[in-house]
């Protein structure tokens, strides 16, 4: 079998160019992070990581991610089901609306939440009179994190569910399955890898969000400091090694994400090959 | 342009897709490659086209187009026309642009003027009766229309060899019939050498000057449709070319016995399997001295000029199929559940290939 | 205790894990100090000392938490609901903004000594080894071959002080001739090679990236940088004329009341004026008022003519309006 | 295929869950996405049209649009070429380390922007690994708009790769073969047959990369010199307005970015829909 661009020279040239450019452009920064983090030895790295405030930041960051995922999951599945299984006026608008978080600069995302839920905002002011504080506390961080991460699951599911069509679900319904059973037994097995991929992306973004969170967090060490914020503070405090130690932790989460994703894809490819 | 293949073999990984094959196709001939899926027919066609390379074996194979050795010539320089199974039309181009593509990619030196391209494309579109569809996109055409565009596209570069991969596979029966006749007509008119791949024996027999029957990467037989049908080289060819009824039993004193059925045959003692075509079965109300084959009618379906009758009996592992003319059908007053006697008009046996040939039964 | 805090603590405890004994859970009262970006190390020293002192005096365990950010961003956060009990800023205007919003008492500058500034500093230069460009005063910065680094006055209080100091110098030099002052300022601003958003960013540009001939920042900051990055490679130049940079502190009364921390907040700010705290501050290269400490550190702080914003520009609000607001003098000077 | 699915689902509501999924989706979109944006317009309501116009057309702000759009355009174009190359290599060729390269493509999505920012600044500053080398051949990256474009390109490259890749994967081998059998050389076949197929995906990916670049802040701010009129990005202008307690001004500039981004996204969606319809049959 021959394809266009299979000539050995072209092939070798393109592969070399791609590998070289990605190496310089994508891999080198990754290497630099770890090089900087360990530039003063493992013990310095370790003491930075095991610092109380760093541990607290890790805990908070993970908690926010853990709370964000189920919310985005429910929304993503509901929206994907809605726009791929039904036709109704406004379907395309709905699909564009979920892209808003992509279009909004993270700083602006933080700002709009602050304007609404801050003490001077009309909801925030009302809540304040009941002594409920959302901004500059973890609920605020959670809210903006949900805002910036909510499209990921839906965006993974929609193309897949569109391509699969609804024939299988219709078959299940004709066989007398209830809605929930249809979803659980027919839809879910078909979309689970995409779903997992969406979760992985959501998690990566939730863990790493900086711009939006920095606006609503208040950055109180040991209280509302997430790992990316903590990183920035360390960087500002001339503690480059500490900053890069945090960066290395975040990069490690990123790498785990990539590994999980590659694993999923590999599995999916293998299932296809044996199907 | 004649095509000559010499010692061509191909394997993918550990599977031998083609055993070393040699084949001569004469200039102006229309040859069908017939075989079940996995027989290597498509691979052979793609090797002729240059879409696959033959194995480089100790005795290197050769492909000659006329006198020209094209073994190592790239597909784009072989000057062939290739019609793909699913047409492979360029979806983003109009019908006109699809047909013109081959001409517009010629090097400046060989490229006809744009006026000439236009004229030639319209001539082709006229030929495939699609001149009014020039500005449509492939997605707006029916399957048969797409196939005709695909053919016009392949013919635009005036190839000396036209290769077609299951050209009518995805079309419905009526369109297929029409296109077949039309292709035959086109071939006779333009007089190029054509090779096409099919798994439909009817198509191969109807369309081809000669048919190459293939199985398991080997050529089983090359012959004209008539010769093929009349004198199949082996059991595989016989079975592949049409419906077959089997009669298996012990021969003793020139009588083949199978349960309560028996038939007089001129064969030595031993185990035998006889094969016969549906039209070689005659049905009567009573047995004869020669044959005593009691059967029961289980289904009757009139198909075209004849009536197909399905027969079952205790002594048959597989039901038989008999075809009778309408007059005979009326004469015998055939009905489902009726008990009759079958008489072979003619039968065959392929003793040498019993163990080798794959089991091929065509009941429908 | 507000619902949100209870929730926050229980969930955080959950998140951080039971193995990590969180002091926030164990203690009753917690004071939140909202401060400017570069004061993290400073308050990391002061707070434990205050906590120990308070326990000794009152037999009560308290915890002081810190929130750091750009001084303006911090003020904004408080207005939007960050429940800081006290502010320790590097700009008077940012406290004034809170006062305007009713979050700080109107007469906050009279509430504590020295205009409620327990310590102060000025703007100074950090140059590279042996001062190759011979930079001694502000007028050396407008030479053609000098590359200047300081943070963006639009986003940084630190940068604003630098701008005002340069203006103040020019004002004296040209005897108030507006046209000459503006020419001077225009050249000065044109010599800036990087406008980082904050003081620490500017430091990184100057030190780590090796950009520019001179970094302008607080005197305290340039001294800290020099000791951090090697006294052999850099020199500190304190110009003969510069600006008085006050570091104002105030109690955010509504928040302190709500948190039941009014006494604690007041004591915390007063604690900054105590002799040992002042010594600690001087150790961080801040200028202080406590006489014994001033004498002790006399060598460290050269005599400088410190201009007051109020004297040169009338008042802080006036300076802000004329120079830094959208369409103000800064925009005019940078326009092309 | 997808058209088919859409058409089917349109005819009747055979499947359950319309009300529930509609309820969840609309509630979520209203509360999480739309309600906060009303806050933005609430701020804008305090401005007269003339004031609004004055803020968004102020010289320095306009200069920041130019810088942002220019750098984002350069980044998007570079990504279009680079992303196409990567997608092509990843789909069409087998080579050792391919899976690794494939996984690496998602790094910019997975890596927090702040981490990307400080890392790129460290690498490409005159004293960094890349910067010192580039400076030797006369290219300054950090603190110039090249740095801005670089940071934008870094954060948005996956958009191009990941939108082009599946389309390239789905392209049947017969398309290549048909072009070759008709005598087209690699170059001609790529330009006239493959590119038109990839075009919608490439434009979509590049468009998404462009939109993402317009809003990027965290990764850029460390490497941009932030010089007025030269290397100030629009996100920084919003940040500056915030520093000045000028919420209305910040909201005004933010609204411009928001409108432009949303308009671009909508345009991409509509354009892509048209293109896909043509390829899959206009009557569907």
TrEMBL record, chain A:
<keyword id="KW-0997">Cell inner membrane</keyword>
<dbReference type="InterPro" id="IPR000515">
    <property type="entry name" value="MetI-like"/>
</dbReference>
<keyword id="KW-0472">Membrane</keyword>
<dbReference type="InterPro" id="IPR011866">
    <property type="entry name" value="CysW_permease"/>
</dbReference>
<dbReference type="InterPro" id="IPR035906">
    <property type="entry name" value="MetI-like_sf"/>
</dbReference>
<feature type="transmembrane region" description="Helical">
    <location>
        <begin position="58"/>
        <end position="84"/>
    </location>
</feature>
<feature type="transmembrane region" description="Helical">
    <location>
        <begin position="12"/>
        <end position="38"/>
    </location>
</feature>
<dbReference type="Pfam" id="PF00528">
    <property type="entry name" value="BPD_transp_1"/>
</dbReference>
<dbReference type="InterPro" id="IPR005667">
    <property type="entry name" value="Sulph_transpt2"/>
</dbReference>
<feature type="transmembrane region" description="Helical">
    <location>
        <begin position="96"/>
        <end position="116"/>
    </location>
</feature>
<feature type="transmembrane region" description="Helical">
    <location>
        <begin position="240"/>
        <end position="260"/>
    </location>
</feature>
<keyword id="KW-1133">Transmembrane helix</keyword>
TrEMBL record, chain B:
<keyword id="KW-0067">ATP-binding</keyword>
<keyword id="KW-0764">Sulfate transport</keyword>
<dbReference type="GO" id="GO:0015419">
    <property type="term" value="F:ABC-type sulfate transporter activity"/>
</dbReference>
<dbReference type="InterPro" id="IPR024765">
    <property type="entry name" value="TOBE-like"/>
</dbReference>
<keyword id="KW-1003">Cell membrane</keyword>
<dbReference type="GO" id="GO:0043190">
    <property type="term" value="C:ATP-binding cassette (ABC) transporter complex"/>
</dbReference>
<keyword id="KW-0472">Membrane</keyword>
<dbReference type="InterPro" id="IPR008995">
    <property type="entry name" value="Mo/tungstate-bd_C_term_dom"/>
</dbReference>
<dbReference type="InterPro" id="IPR005666">
    <property type="entry name" value="Sulph_transpt1"/>
</dbReference>
<dbReference type="GO" id="GO:0016887">
    <property type="term" value="F:ATP hydrolysis activity"/>
</dbReference>
<dbReference type="GO" id="GO:0005524">
    <property type="term" value="F:ATP binding"/>
</dbReference>
<dbReference type="InterPro" id="IPR003593">
    <property type="entry name" value="AAA+_ATPase"/>
</dbReference>
TrEMBL record, chain C:
<dbReference type="GO" id="GO:1902358">
    <property type="term" value="P:sulfate transmembrane transport"/>
</dbReference>
<dbReference type="GO" id="GO:0140104">
    <property type="term" value="F:molecular carrier activity"/>
</dbReference>
<keyword id="KW-0574">Periplasm</keyword>
<keyword id="KW-0813">Transport</keyword>
<dbReference type="InterPro" id="IPR005669">
    <property type="entry name" value="Thiosulph/SO4-bd"/>
</dbReference>
<protein>
    <submittedName>
        <fullName>Sulfate transport system substrate-binding protein</fullName>
    </submittedName>
</protein>
<keyword id="KW-0732">Signal</keyword>
<comment type="similarity">
    <text>Belongs to the prokaryotic sulfate-binding protein family.</text>
</comment>
<dbReference type="GO" id="GO:0042597">
    <property type="term" value="C:periplasmic space"/>
</dbReference>
<dbReference type="Pfam" id="PF13531">
    <property type="entry name" value="SBP_bac_11"/>
</dbReference>
<feature type="signal peptide">
    <location>
        <begin position="1"/>
        <end position="26"/>
    </location>
</feature>
From TrEMBL, chain D:
<feature type="transmembrane region" description="Helical">
    <location>
        <begin position="20"/>
        <end position="42"/>
    </location>
</feature>
<dbReference type="Pfam" id="PF00528">
    <property type="entry name" value="BPD_transp_1"/>
</dbReference>
<feature type="transmembrane region" description="Helical">
    <location>
        <begin position="137"/>
        <end position="161"/>
    </location>
</feature>
<dbReference type="InterPro" id="IPR005667">
    <property type="entry name" value="Sulph_transpt2"/>
</dbReference>
<keyword id="KW-0472">Membrane</keyword>
<comment type="function">
    <text>Part of the ABC transporter complex CysAWTP (TC 3.A.1.6.1) involved in sulfate/thiosulfate import. Probably responsible for the translocation of the substrate across the membrane.</text>
</comment>
<dbReference type="InterPro" id="IPR000515">
    <property type="entry name" value="MetI-like"/>
</dbReference>
<dbReference type="InterPro" id="IPR035906">
    <property type="entry name" value="MetI-like_sf"/>
</dbReference>
<feature type="transmembrane region" description="Helical">
    <location>
        <begin position="103"/>
        <end position="125"/>
    </location>
</feature>
<dbReference type="GO" id="GO:0005886">
    <property type="term" value="C:plasma membrane"/>
</dbReference>
<protein>
    <recommendedName>
        <fullName>Sulfate transport system permease protein CysT</fullName>
    </recommendedName>
</protein>
<keyword id="KW-0812">Transmembrane</keyword>
């Amino acid at each position: 079998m021959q394809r266009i661009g299979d000539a050995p020279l072209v092939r070798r040239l393109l592969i070399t160019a791609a590998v070289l450019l990605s190496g310089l452009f994508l891999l080198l920064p990754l290497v630099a992070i770890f090089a900087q983090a360990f530039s003063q030895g493992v013990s310095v790295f370790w003491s930075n990581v095991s610092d109380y405030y760093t541990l607290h930041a890790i805990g908070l960051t993970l908690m926010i991610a853990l709370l964000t995922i189920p919310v985005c999951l429910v929304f993503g599945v509901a929206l994907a089901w809605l726009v791929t299984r039904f036709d109704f006026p406004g379907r395309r608008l709905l699909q564009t609306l979920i892209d808003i978080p992509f279009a909004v600069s993270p700083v602006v995302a933080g700002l709009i939440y602050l304007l609404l839920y801050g003490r001077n905002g009309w909801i925030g002011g009302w809540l304040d009179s009941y002594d409920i504080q959302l901004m500059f506390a973890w609920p605020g961080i959670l809210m903006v994190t949900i805002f910036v991460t909510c499209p990921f699951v839906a965006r993974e599911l929609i193309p897949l569910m569109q391509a699969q069509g609804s024939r299988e679900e219709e078959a299940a319904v004709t066989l007398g399955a209830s809605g929930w059973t249809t979803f659980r037994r027919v839809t879910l097995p078909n979309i689970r890898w995409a779903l997992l991929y969406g979760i992985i992306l959501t998690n990566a973004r939730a863990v790493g969000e900086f711009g939006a969170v920095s606006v609503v967090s208040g950055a109180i060490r040991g209280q509302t400091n997430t790992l990316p914020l903590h990183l920035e503070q360390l960087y500002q405090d001339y503690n480059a090694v500490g900053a890069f130690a945090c960066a290395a932790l975040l990069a490690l989460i990123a790498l785990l994400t990539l590994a999980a994703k590659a694993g999923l894809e590999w599995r999916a490819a293998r299932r296809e090959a044996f199907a | 342009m004649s095509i000559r293949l010499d010692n061509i073999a191909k394997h993918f990984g550990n599977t031998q897709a083609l055993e070393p094959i040699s084949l001569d196709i004469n200039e102006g001939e229309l040859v069908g490659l017939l075989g079940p899926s996995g027989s290597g027919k498509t691979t052979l066609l793609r090797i002729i086209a240059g879409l696959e390379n033959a194995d480089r074996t100790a005795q290197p194979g050769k492909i000659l187009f006329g006198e020209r050795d094209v073994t190592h010539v790239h597909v784009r320089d072989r000057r062939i026309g290739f019609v793909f199974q699913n047409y492979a039309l360029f979806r983003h181009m109009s019908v006109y642009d699809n047909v013109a593509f081959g001409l517009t990619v010629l090097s400046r030196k060989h490229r006809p003027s744009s006026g000439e391209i236009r004229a030639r494309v319209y001539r082709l579109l006229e030929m495939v009766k699609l001149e009014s569809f020039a500005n449509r996109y492939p997605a707006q055409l029916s399957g048969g229309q797409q196939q005709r565009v695909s053919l016009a596209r392949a013919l635009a570069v005036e190839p000396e060899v036209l290769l077609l991969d299951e050209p009518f596979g995805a079309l419905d029966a009526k369109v297929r019939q029409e296109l077949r006749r039309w292709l035959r007509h086109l071939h006779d008119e333009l007089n190029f050498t054509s090779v096409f791949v099919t798994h439909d024996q009817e198509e191969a027999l109807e369309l081809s000057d000669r048919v190459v029957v293939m199985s398991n990467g080997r050529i089983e037989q090359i012959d004209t449709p008539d010769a093929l049908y009349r004198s199949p080289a082996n059991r595989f060819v016989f079975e592949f070319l049409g419906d077959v009824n089997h009669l298996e039993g012990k021969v003793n004193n020139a009588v083949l016995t199978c349960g309560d059925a028996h038939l007089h045959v001129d064969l030595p003692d031993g185990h035998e399997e006889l094969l016969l075509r549906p039209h070689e079965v005659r049905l009567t109300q009573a047995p004869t001295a020669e044959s005593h084959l009691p059967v029961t009618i289980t289904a009757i379906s009139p198909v075209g000029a004849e009536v197909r009758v399905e027969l079952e009996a205790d002594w048959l592992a597989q039901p038989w199929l008999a075809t009778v003319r309408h007059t005979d059908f009326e004469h015998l007053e055939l009905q489902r559940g009726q008990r009759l006697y079958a008489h072979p008009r003619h039968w065959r046996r392929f003793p040498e290939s019993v163990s080798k040939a794959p089991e091929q039964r065509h009941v429908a | 205790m507000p619902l949100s805090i209870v929730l926050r603590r229980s969930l955080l405890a959950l998140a951080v894990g039971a193995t990590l004994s969180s002091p926030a859970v164990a203690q009753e009262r917690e004071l939140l100090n909202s401060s400017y970006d570069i004061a993290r190390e400073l308050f990391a020293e002061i707070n434990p000392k205050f906590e120990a002192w308070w326990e000794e005096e009152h037999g009560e365990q308290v915890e002081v938490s810190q929130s750091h950010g750009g001084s303006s961003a911090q003020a904004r956060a408080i207005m939007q609901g960050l429940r800081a009990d006290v502010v320790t800023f590097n700009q008077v205007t940012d406290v004034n903004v809170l006062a305007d919003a009713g979050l700080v008492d109107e007469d906050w500058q009279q509430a504590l000594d020295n205009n409620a500034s327990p310590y102060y500093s000025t703007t100074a230069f950090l140059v590279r080894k042996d001062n190759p460009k011979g930079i001694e005063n502000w007028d050396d910065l407008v030479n053609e071959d000098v590359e200047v680094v300081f943070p963006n006055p639009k986003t940084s209080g630190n940068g604003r002080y630098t701008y005002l100091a340069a203006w103040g110098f020019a004002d004296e030099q040209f005897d108030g001739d507006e046209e000459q002052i503006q020419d001077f300022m225009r050249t000065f601003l044109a010599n800036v090679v990087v406008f980082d958003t904050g003081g620490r960013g500017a430091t990184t540009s100057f030190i780590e990236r090796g950009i520019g001939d001179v970094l302008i920042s607080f005197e305290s900051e340039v001294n800290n940088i020099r000791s951090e990055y090697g006294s052999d490679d850099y020199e500190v130049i304190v110009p003969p004329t510069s600006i008085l940079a006050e570091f104002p502190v105030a109690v955010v009364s509504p928040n302190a009341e709500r948190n039941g921390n009014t006494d604690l907040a007041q004591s915390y700010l007063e604690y900054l004026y105590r002799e040992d705290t002042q010594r600690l501050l001087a150790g961080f290269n801040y200028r202080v008022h406590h006489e014994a400490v001033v004498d002790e550190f006399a060598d460290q702080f050269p005599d400088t003519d410190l201009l007051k914003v109020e004297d040169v520009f009338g008042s802080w609000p006036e300076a802000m309006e004329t120079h830094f607001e959208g369409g103000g003098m800064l925009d005019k000077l940078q326009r092309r | 295929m997808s058209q088919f699915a859409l058409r089917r689902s349109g005819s009747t509501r055979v499947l359950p869950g319309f009300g529930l999924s509609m309820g969840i989706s609309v509630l979520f979109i209203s509360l999480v996405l739309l309600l906060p944006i009303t806050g933005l317009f609430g701020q804008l309501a305090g401005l007269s049209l003339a004031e609004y116009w004055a803020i968004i057309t102020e010289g320095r702000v306009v200069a920041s649009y130019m810088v942002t759009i220019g750098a984002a355009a350069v980044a998007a174009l570079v990504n279009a070429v680079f992303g196409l190359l990567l997608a092509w290599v990843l789909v069409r060729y087998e080579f050792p380390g391919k899976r690794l390269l494939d996984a690496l493509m998602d790094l910019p999505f997975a890596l927090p922007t702040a981490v990307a920012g400080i890392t790129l600044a460290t690498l490409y500053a005159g004293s960094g690994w890349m910067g010192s080398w580039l400076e030797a051949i006369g290219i300054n990256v950090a603190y110039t708009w090249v740095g801005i474009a670089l940071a934008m390109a870094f954060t948005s490259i996956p958009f191009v790769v990941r939108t082009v890749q599946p389309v390239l994967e789905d392209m049947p081998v017969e398309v290549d073969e048909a072009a070759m059998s008709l005598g087209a050389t690699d170059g001609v076949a790529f330009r006239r047959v493959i590119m038109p197929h990839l075009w919608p995906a490439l434009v979509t990916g590049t468009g998404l990369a462009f939109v993402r670049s317009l809003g990027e802040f965290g990764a850029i701010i460390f490497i941009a010199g932030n010089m007025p009129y030269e290397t100030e990005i629009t996100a920084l202008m919003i940040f500056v307005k915030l520093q000045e307690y000028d919420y209305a001004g910040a909201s005004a500039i933010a609204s411009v970015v928001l409108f432009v981004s949303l308009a671009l996204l909508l345009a991409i969606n509509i354009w892509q829909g048209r293109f896909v319809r043509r390829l899959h049959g206009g009557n569907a």
